[in-house]
Amino acid sequence: METATFLTGQFLLAMPGIGDPRFDQAVIAVCAHDENGAIGIGIGAQVAGLGLHDVLEQVKIDTGAVDDAPIHFGGPVETRRGFVLHSSDWSGQDTIDVAGKWCLSGTLDALRAIAEGKGPSQWLVALGYAGWSAGQLDAEMTRHGWLNVSDDAGMLFDTATADRWTRGFNAAGIDPRLLGIESGRA
């Protein structure tokens, strides 16, 4: 029996020519992937004109002492739903450990803790997510479109948003400047 390979804790990089403009140079942190499907949070693009203070005000949380920060485009599904990817030094009521590399929280307690200065030491906030039904991501991985790479939490917290796509390819030993937009056929 063949063992399934799941991508939890890895990053998906959109290949040039993926065919969906929402995913041009996308970087997705895969937070859960199993036989039932997958969920990932986009970390390769920011939502123009929207910052953390705006989001906190919308959900009626005092901005406290936290600096304003960019909001990431997490994906095309439920674009008004917020997620926090963060270090494992904080945990809330719905926090999920992602392969021991980082954590995912999706409730307001994470935002409250960040605003109060009592949250995780490292974090980023995203609106929306990318989701795949059972077997869908596995099928997509057999076609041109995505490259999965393993990297550490530095991809999330120590790399500028605009540099994450290139960092991912470099981690895989690939120079993204040499990539074409079409896959070959043998």
From TrEMBL:
InterPro entries: AlgH-like. It comes from the Bacteria. One of its GO terms (cellular component) is cytosol. Gene3D superfamilies: VC0467-like (3.40.1740.10). Belongs to the UPF0301 (AlgH) family. This is UPF0301 protein SPDO_23260.
